[in-house]
Amino acid sequence: MTILILGLLIFLGVHSVRIVADDWRSAQIARIGEKRWKGIYSIASGIGLVLIIWGYGLARAHPVSVWIPPTWARPVAMPLVAIAFILLPAAHVPNNHFKTLLGHPMVLGVLLWAFAHLLANGTLSAIVLFGAFLLWAIVDFIAARRRDLLAGTTYPPANVARDGMVIVSGLIAWALFAFLLHGWLFGVRPMG
User: Fold this and answer.
1) Where does the NnrU domain start and stop, copy by copy (predicted)?
2) What distance in Å separates the CA atoms of residue 68 and residue 87, rounded to the nearest whole number?
3) pLDDT by residue (tens digit) across 114-159?
4) Can you give the residue range of the structural domain that contains 23?
5) Structural contact between residues 190 and 77, judged by C-beta atoms closer than 8 angstroms
């Protein structure tokens, strides 16, 4: 569990710099340049992600059951994760309604993904992993919306065609992951 927690601290710590030290972050970008900042950020994030995956794999080898998920948890979790997958591309496709209405759809996607996995898993390692991501997503979304409010950020008008691109790409990615990759990567087939 130590490796998992270390990975979470690194990964979510890097992704929290803007939440807790936005002025320092801006000063570092000004000092070393945006490309170098993104490089350091990416390396630290990658190290954290590798530690999370490794640590979670180790923890799953010796699971500690905290609670048994109810039978309705998986059927509820599956559409929540599908929506989460739709919200991920919504952050990158310009002029879609998700971005216009939510401002930060990727963070909400992470929130839904984490919540859905907490519903469907009752082990201590799952609670640590998905609980950490859920807490981070809540705090990050509040901070991002506050930044938007203070900066007077508005999002451009949305286009239904862009919504279609977001929904189709998100659902294709979700289907690939749910039916093929999740079982191959994690040994769990959420679709049976």
Assistant:
1) 3-190
2) 29
3) 999 999 999 999 999 999 999 999 999 999 999 999 988 888 888 8
4) 1-62
5) yes
Q: Are residues 9 and 54 in the same domain?
A: yes
The 10 Å Cβ neighbour count of residue 146 is 11
Rounded Cα–Cα distance for residues 115 and 102 (Å) = 18
Q: Is the pLDDT of residue 183 over 90?
A: no
Q: How far apart are CA 9 and CA 136, in angstroms?
A: 11
Q: Say if residue 51 is in the same domain as residue 76.
A: no
Determine the residue type at 191.
M
CA-to-CA distance for 170 and 92, rounded, in angstroms? 12
pTM confidence score: 0.91
The residue from 62, 77, 109 where one domain ends is 62
Q: How far apart are CA 148 and CA 141, in angstroms?
A: 10
How many domains are there within the chain? 2
* CA gap 73, 118 in Å, rounded: 9
Question: What is the reported pLDDT for 157?
Answer: 84
Question: Looking at the structure, do residues 156 and 103 belong to the same domain, yes or no?
Answer: yes
Q: Using an 8 Å Cβ cutoff, are 15 and 135 in contact?
A: no
Both 134 and 186 in one domain: the answer is yes
Q: Is 86 exposed, middle or buried (0-12, 13-18, 19+ CB in 10 A)?
A: buried
